[in-house]
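Here's what a typical entry looks like (N-acetyltransferase domain-containing protein):
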Amino acid sequence: VPSDAHEEVLEDIIIRPMELKDCGPCFYLGERIFVTGSLYRTWDEWEPVSLLSGCPEYCFVAEAKEDGSIVGFVLGSVFHQKKLTTGYVDWVLVDPKWQRNGIGTLLVERAFRTMQENEDRPLDVLMADTPADNTPAIDFFMEHLNFTDRIPHVYLMRFRDRDSLHEDAGEEKQRKQKKHRKEKPDPVQIRPAMVDDLYTIYQLGESSFRYHANLARTWDEAEVMDMFSSNSEYCLVATIDGEIAGFCMGTTVDKRKRDRPYGYLVWLAVDDRFGRQ
């Protein structure tokens, strides 16, 4: 609960629905704060635009009454699955100069309250994620918003300028292996995903991610369709004897300060029956 001093600050703030004019200020605020790690790699101009386009009712900004500047925002969405409805805080941020005044709490609570009011099915769970070393954000969600379960999640990176070293080592290993065995045709074939593969991909993801709560809560049919429709060139399947044995779905993230985009492997799964092939 905000203190009296915080209440005075909140009197200078308006929490309102996000509008198209706010996309620029929100992006630049995020660009200024998300400067390292997984937040930096996945934050781009498309994030506020796509969430406002797809889930406008769950996007809110904190606006300073004095000059109309945007000092914070929350971007949310809702995932509908067969047995679970999840409210998700995709992004929340408050300008450091305005932090510790209850603005972030008001933004998130406004988004969650709207989710509860708008959805035909009641929310089963509320979810947010942040890097494991972002202690202030973790404390914010657990102390002020009553989040409880902490599920570890790891982001991995491989830099392009090191790829040649990996390729050289891999080729040398293959040459040594060929000396000790006869050549056999590779049973695994990699090809682009096709529209008639999508349901099989969805089912394989359902069976693969069901034991990982943070993955299961964001994997649904809409995710498969969105990835395929927007990034079909980065959606691949692995087949063995014509049967889909695995898949990957990726995208790229452009950064203003980098010459090349980040390649982001969003989803990867292999059917247990074909493991270690």
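The longest strand covers residues 70-80.

More examples are in the samples folder.
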